[in-house]
Every structure is written in structure tokens, then in C-alpha cells.
Amino acid sequence: MALTIKDIAKKAGVSEATVSLAFNDSPLVNANTKAMVLEIAKELNYHPNLIAKSLATRKSNSIGIIIPDINIIFYANVLRVVDILVKQKGYSLVMAMSGNDPKRESEIIREFIAKRCEGVMVIPSILVPSGEPAKYLSEYRRELDRFDIPVVYLTSLYPVENVKYVMGDIEEGTYKLVSHLMGYGHREIVFIGGKEYIPTTSLRRSGYSRAFSEHDLPVKAENLIECENLYFSDAVKAMEKLVRERDDFTAVVAMNDEMAIGVLKVLHNAGIRVPEDVSLVGYDNTNYSAVATVGITTMDSDVERTCGFAIDMLLAIMSKEEIKEKHIRIKPTMIKRQSVGPVTEQKRLVWNGETVTKA
């Protein structure tokens, strides 16, 4: 038998009216009583939006979105575009930040359910351990299904079955960037990204490897560098270590533009010129890549189109329409700037093991 407000009131030792007021954050209920009622509701897995049948069916005209970190300019751009497009569709946007914590992501989903959001968009956490996505998704997806609330994943995905997503084709984009570098003679190309099991890193590595395969070249493990996170500081730390230990690389592929700026900073501090000594590419075509001291070649993920497709997919599901495409990857566009150049003859000698003065 389904729980009712009466069950919550009985366990809390208060009236049903008090429980209702607590759920609605009424100032007529003191803080201690309110906290107790909400804690009991959480323990019993009871959601305030089911207080009555009318609440269960009432539309809120709101859509929830979870982003990992508002400080990442790419996510901020996504949020800006989603907010504009959602409002154009007549809905309000409820935003929450997961901090790349999958447990927090689950908590936010429950908060969205309690707020009666009609649909949910999620930019997945990058810190879900290898093999663990299903564990974290199963709980909140069951809850979303229970309340008939659809979810669409945006700009990334969790590698589990029946996940609907819209994202840029980052595998193809990375393939094109690496092929572009190879067209300038580069072969010792370093990739700086996240953990290999993260889908957005894995897909980029796949594109990287495809470019090497087409040139009948092996992928060297030492050229695939993993960072704990995908921030400026992570790229700086990884690049400082690389510069101390090696001088044979001629190009760097950064996971995103923010990391590319970190790479550029370290190269500049080490007296290594871009692109004369080392070429550099980023990803996302954020403002970072355009205003850097050296304009950075990057891939434009077409945030507007990606977000538009995701919102249309979510609204279609909310309207019980048949979805023909559940997995959409938007083709990216290369933005060529000044950070890519040809390999110097001195670098070619370094490849062959000869001792030369570094270019």
C-alpha cells in the first residue's frame, strides 16, 4: 500500500496539516519540526509532490538540469543556451550543480522529483568510477520512471543501456584534429585528457587512435596522459611533468580549451614556442581559445544545436511522442587559428635519436 501524508504524520507525532505545511516550507512550522518531518519522509522514500492525487498530476512547467561545475566555461555556455531555449518553449529551468559527485547527482534528481519537474537533463559526472555508472543510475532512474519523468543526457553519456543522449561527435572531432596535425608532419602527438574509462575521454582517444591507424602508426602509451580532472590546473601539472621529462613531442591535443590554456602557459614559461616548437589544439571553441596569446585551433561543438536537439527530444518524450533517434551526435566544425605549424627539421632529428640543440 502506498504511503500517505497520514503515515508521515503518525510517525512524526504531528497533525497531517503540520506535515503539509512542512512540505510547503511554511513559516508556521518551526525549524525543528520541519526538519524532523522531512527526515522521516526521506527515510520512507516519500515525495511531497504525491501529497494528493491532484499534486501528482499537476503540471509545474519546469525542467531540471544538472551540471557538474558552473565554473567550467563550456558548462556555463551550455546552461546559458538551455535556459534561453527552455524559456522559449514556455518552461522554467531549475538548475543544480553536482560538483562531479554521482551521489549528489542522485540527491538532486530526488529534489527535482519533489519539485515536480516534468523533465530532467543531466550533464554526467566525470568521476563515476569505472564500471559503476549502472549502480548510480539504477536508483534514480527507477524513481524517475516511477513518477513518469523523462531524462535526457546532454554533451556526454553514461555507458549503460537505454540512455537517451545528445552530444557533439567528439570521436570524429578529435580524429579531425589529430589528422590536421599529421598533415603538418606531426607524429609525436601527446593527448592530455581524463581517465580512460570516462566516456568523453574514451571517445576522444578512439578518434586519436583512428588517425594513427590510418597512417599505419602505433599509438604510444606514453603519449596518452591521464588527469584526475579536466581543469586548467590539471593540465598545468601534467604539462610541467612532461616538459621536465621529454623533448621529443611536437604537438599536444588538449581535452578542452581550458586545459589547452594550461598547456600554453607551461610551454611559454619553459621557453617553448607555439607553434614554432610545439603545436597545440583544444576543444569546444570557447572564448579561451580565441583570446589566448596564441589563437588556439579547436573544434566547435555547436552548443546551440546540441542543446536544441536535447530539449526537443525531452519535450517530445514528455508529450508521449515516439522518438526515432535516441542517440544523437552533432558533427563538430574545426576552427583553425595560429597554434598549429609544421614540424621543424631539428625536431625530426630528435625523433631519430640524434643529439641536437632543441629548437
Structural class by helix and strand composition: alpha/beta
Shape: elongated
Tally of helical segments: 14
Strand order of the largest sheet: 2-1-3-4-5-11
Number of strands: 12
What proportion of the residues form beta strands (DSSP E)?
5-15%
What portion of residues is helical?
A: 40-55%
Radius of gyration: 25 Å
For the record, give the distance between the C-alpha atoms at the N and C termini, rounded to a whole number. 76 Å
What's the pLDDT, averaged over the residues? 88
Biggest sheet details: 6 strands, parallel
Element-level helix/strand string: HHHHEHEHEHEEHEHEHEHEHEHEEH
Contiguous uncertain segments of 5+ residues:
50-57, 355-359
What does this structure look like?
This protein is α/β, with parallel strands linked by helices. Helix content is 45%, strand content 14%. It contains 14 helices and 12 strands. It has helices at residues 5-12, 16-23, 31-43, 53-57, 73-88, 102-114, 133-146, 170-183, 199-214, 232-245, 257-269, 287-291, 303-318, 345-351; strands spanning 62-67, 92-97, 119-122, 151-154, 165-168, 189-193, 224-226, 251-254, 279-281, 298-300, 327-330, 333-335. The strands form 3 sheets. The chain has a 6-stranded parallel β-sheet with strand order 2-1-3-4-5-11, sandwiched between helices. Strands 7-6-8-9 form a 4-stranded parallel β-sheet, sandwiched between helices. Helix 7 (133-146) links the parallel strand 3 (119-122) and strand 4 (151-154). Helix 8 (170-183) packs parallel to helix 9 (199-214). The protein is elongated and about 85 Å long.
